[in-house]
Specification:
There is one protein chain. It is built from one helix and 17 strands. By secondary structure, it is mainly beta. It has one domain: Jelly Rolls (Sandwich). The strands form three sheets. Strands 1, 4, 5, 8, 12, 13, 14, 15 and 17 form a nine-stranded antiparallel β-sheet that branches. A six-stranded antiparallel β-sheet has the order 2-7-16-9-10-11. It has a two-stranded parallel ribbon with strand order 3-6. Strand 4 and strand 5 form a beta hairpin.
Length: 254
């Protein structure tokens, strides 16, 4: 195992406070403080309101700050991004595997995800991106519907898939907000394999074409005014606080 990030206050080897978190992760990723996708939340620096440590987890927590509300920019939330970067064949190994164990929220408008994208630098990144998982609690899908897209110029066809429909959903009848699940990504130089609790969901031909390697991130977005995301808007302040709960992130290399 290359990295084993365990979260919680239960053990001195786990990441259990803000200082330890800041040693391994950044609170801002690809967009810095810029709001993307017309999202309603604004991500915050590490603080005890939006980064809440429990005995066995870290909760990325969305809150309504003083003067805020369920509107664009009216919500505070948290995200973590690895300081390290990864790319098969470039950053030292030919293959990487990632696992995040997490429990998602189920409130209307919540949009939790674990994904990989290029860290900002002088070299302009392209749209290479690996998402797994990504949940949209909105009009036509919710916490029962797994999605995990792959994007970019190097995207090829799926050569294995049990996804339910053409929109990229897998609907196994599981309420993913009811408990923790393991989401695993195997990334080689020419393909990405995505598993849930050890079950292969989709495998896709893919080449990372960004001039920069990827950092991985986990975040809790809430709300969007993008018209393509129908119903991805929280409708009451009583939803808050709400959290994406993470128990561990592990990385293997070969």
């Amino acid at each position: 195992m290359l990295r084993d990030y365990r979260f919680g206050t239960y053990d001195r080897r786990a990441i259990g406070n803000l200082d330890a978190l800041a040693n391994k992760f950044d609170p801002y990723g690809i967009a810095g403080t810029t709001v993307i996708n017309r999202e309603w939340q604004r991500y915050q620096t590490f603080n005890p309101d939006n980064f809440v440590f429990k005995t066995h987890s870290l909760e990325l927590t969305a809150t309504i700050p003083e003067g805020g509300g369920v509107s664009e920019g009216g919500i505070h939330s948290g995200q973590i991004w690895s300081k390290e970067t990864f790319q098969p064949g470039v950053t030292g190994d030919s293959m990487y595997a990632f696992e995040i164990r997490m429990k998602i929220p189920n409130g209307v408008g919540t949009w939790p995800a674990f994904w990989m994208y290029s860290k900002p630098s002088a070299k302009r990144s392209d749209s290479s991106e690996i998402d797994h998982p990504e949940f949209f609690v909105m009009r036509y899908q919710n916490q029962f519907d797994w999605t995990g897209s792959t994007h970019g110029p190097g995207l090829g066809a799926d050569f294995y898939s049990i996804k339910t429909n053409k929109f990229g959903l897998w609907h196994p009848g599981t309420d993913f907000s009811a408990d923790y699940h393991d989401y695993q990504t195997l990334w080689t130089g020419d393909a990405v394999y995505k598993y849930v609790d050890g079950k292969l969901i989709v495998a896709t031909y893919f080449k990372w074409t960004s001039p920069n390697p990827a950092q991985f991130g986990a975040n809790l977005a809430v709300g969007s005014s993008d018209p393509s995301l129908v119903g991805l808007q929280p409708d009451a302040t009583t939803l808050f606080p709400t959290a994406l709960s993470i128990q561990h992130i592990k990385v293997w290399a070969r």
